[in-house]
Amino acid sequence: MNLEWWHWAVGGIVLILLELAIPAFFVIWFGLGALLVALVALLAGEMSLTVQLALWMLASIAMTVLWFRVFDRRRHKTLAGTAAGEVIGEVGLLVGAIEPYGRGKVRFQRPILGSDEWSCLAETAIPAGERVRVVAIEGSFLKVAKV
Q1: d(CA 120, CA 123)
Q2: CA 121, CA 28: separation in Å to the nearest integer?
Q3: Given the DSSP bridges, would you call strands 103-112 and 115-121 parallel, antiparallel or unpaired?
Q4: What is the pTM assigned to this prediction?
């Protein structure tokens, strides 16, 4: 069995789109790894299935490790008890779609003010799975805007 470059490209796109359904910041790295294999296969020509799979595994694992090193919990301490000014600008992932001035949920990679998921509101409609930035704190809600 030999996989063509476009098989990897389609698989990579499917995995990246799957990240929208399962917002865990994990599946996307395997999708990007598949896109990398697609690019290498396109440029290099024929490669054995074993080489393709090994390249995909290595690329995916390398990207995942780099991701966790960037968001190392020891480097990023919780902001619990800090002023709101330190929370503004944080980027999270919208768990569900939000309507203008409606309520939704935003999930952060690391805890913000003691929790990794917060109720939020926005002035514009934002679909689920979008990256949002905290622009203000209004009562017990975070006001967010699309990044």
Answers
A1: 11
A2: 26
A3: antiparallel
A4: 0.49
Are 109 and 25 within 8 A, CB to CB?
yes
**Is residue 64 within 8 Å of residue 19, measured between CB atoms?**
no
Q: Is 145 helix (H, G, I), strand (E, B) or coil?
A: strand
Ranges of H-type helices in 22-147:
27-44, 49-70
Q: Can you tell me the distance from the alpha carbon of 139 to that of 27, in angstroms, rounded to the nearest whole number?
A: 34
Per the structure block, which two tokens stand in for 113?
């003010």
Which residues have C-beta within 8 Å of that of residue 138, sequence separation ≥ 6? 121
Q: Which residue has the tokens 């944080």?
A: 90
Partnered with residue 137 across adjacent β-strands are: 142
d(CA 11, CA 23) in angstroms, rounded, equals 18
- Distance, in Å, from the CA atom of 37 to the CA atom of 39, rounded to the nearest integer, reads 5
Encode the chain (147 residues) as per-residue pLDDT tens digits.
Answer: 678 999 999 999 999 999 888 877 788 999 999 999 999 999 988 889 999 999 999 999 999 998 888 777 666 555 555 555 678 888 999 998 899 888 899 999 888 877 889 999 999 999 989 999 998 888 888 889 998
